Amino acid sequence: MSDVEEAITRAHRAEWARVVAALTRRFGDLDTAEEAAAEAFATAVERWPADGVPPNPGAWLTTTANHKAIDRIRRENKRDDKHKEAQMVYDDSREPLGAIDGAIEDERLRLIFTCCHPALAMQTRVALTLRMVGGLTVPEIARAFLVAETAMGQRITRAKAKIKAARIPYRVPSAEDLPARVSGVLAVLFLVFNEGYLATGPGTDPVRHDLTTEAIRLTRLIRALLPEDGEVAGLLALMLLTEARRTARISASRELVPLDEQDRGAWDAALIAEGHRLVRERLAAAATGVAPGRYQILAAINAVHTSARDMCDTDWSQVLALYDQLVRLDPSPIIALNRAIAVAELDGPEVALADVDRLEHGLAGYHAYHATRADLLRRLGRDQESRAAYDKAIDLAGNTAETAHLIRRRDRLR
Amino acid sequence: MQYLVSVIDDKSNPGSTDRRPAISAFNERLIAEGYWVFAGGLADTDTATVIDNRGEQAVFSDGPFVESKEYLAGIWVWEAPDLDVALKLAAEASKVCDRKVEVRPFR
Prior knowledge:
The complex is a heterodimer.
Chain A: H1 3-27, H2 30-51, H3 57-79, H4 81-86, H5 102-115, H6 122-133, H7 138-144, H8 149-165, H9 178-197, H10 209-225, H11 230-243, H12 246-249, H13 269-287, H14 294-307, H15 316-329, H16 333-347, H17 349-357, H18 360-363, H19 367-379, H20 383-396, H21 400-412
Helix pairs in contact in A: 1-2, 1-3, 1-5, 2-3, 5-6, 6-8, 6-9, 7-8, 9-10, 9-11, 10-11, 11-13, 11-14, 13-14, 14-15, 15-16, 16-17, 16-19, 17-19, 19-20, 20-21
Chain B: E1 2-10, H1 20-32, E2 36-41, E3 49-52, E4 59-62, E5 70-79, H2 83-97, E6 100-105
Antiparallel strand pairs in B: 1-5, 1-6, 2-5, 3-4
């Protein structure tokens, strides 16, 4: 990649959300902001190779996008008088857009809260956040969620229309509403991360590094904006500690490598150190009586796993204690299933199997339920039942690397 | 910005019938705080008449235009600066009248 291409890619990562946010603020319309931002980046691709990279790319892009938006509004006003009534007026008296400062950080936060508004369906929130804040293209988002491009385009268009028609406010929620609204934002980011980490679909890469990276980048952004929020720190730590194991998790033959078989030397030490630092910070806060939420507990569980030299060295009683805490917060069967895996290490597969079997009602359609049962039955020497459970898990699994791993495990049974 | 707030009742699982005083008190508050534009409860769907005068002559037919378990039991029209304000009021309204409500902006 040439220096200029690299500068454009870097500017896109760093400045897309700022440009969209600044323009949304000024023109009061997500459509105008998004299209003008896209035009400004297209202009950069044309001009920067000849003119050189401007000294302040963010300011250049914002100014260019601003001109594009004004041109666009003028064009449309001329074209269609009826449309004119519906067009918002732009306000020239506001502060110059080139200034990139603390106030603009706020703008991005507004943008995130608008895209993650509870009046939008969860899938829509995810798509809109990736487009408006993450700067992913519609085809990229469609591919990530295995939806047709036109369907994804329509979903985003409808969401923007709802924001405008229903007047979903472009602002950070008030202090009293903030905790409830942040949790929705975190849920969106966690969904993006998980889709990247355990990508579904026969034609997709088993790990979508672009999505995990994007989720981490956006969570870092929220963390910078809300440094006091424990769950934001918890989610960031959880993502970092999970991402640290990414390369060790898929073998050369593109098969999932379970935790006990992973080469721990291949884990990313820098990400683990950063994740551990965040978990310690939250432990210190918990010691002062602040109860940790689910992301903080999940991060702590991952911190225990990533502190161990190997599987045997893992402090399973600590893991189990954390799961007990988590079950109290979130009594979902999926949490109970993960807890059973820790029980198997402490009390043996038989006790764990009894726990797992009790979850059949809620989890019969979930591949991990059958995979966990298969593994426990295998350890108990009940090969035939294990094989049947692997078959069910293989049928239900959507991730190619996971399917390959389950098939290998099944075929090793006598 | 005006919002239509539809009160939705359910024939198979109706809301409680003793909500009048609570709704009146809530309406007083909407008026005092400047959100109230209009409100009204509707008689049963059996009382509806549908008119179609798009053809040669007007056709009157008995009953609601759509039969369903869930039906429109009443409406509010509110004036609110944005959806967050409307949603907050709607959450209270649902509790006050013990029914689901739907919020929709006027065009």
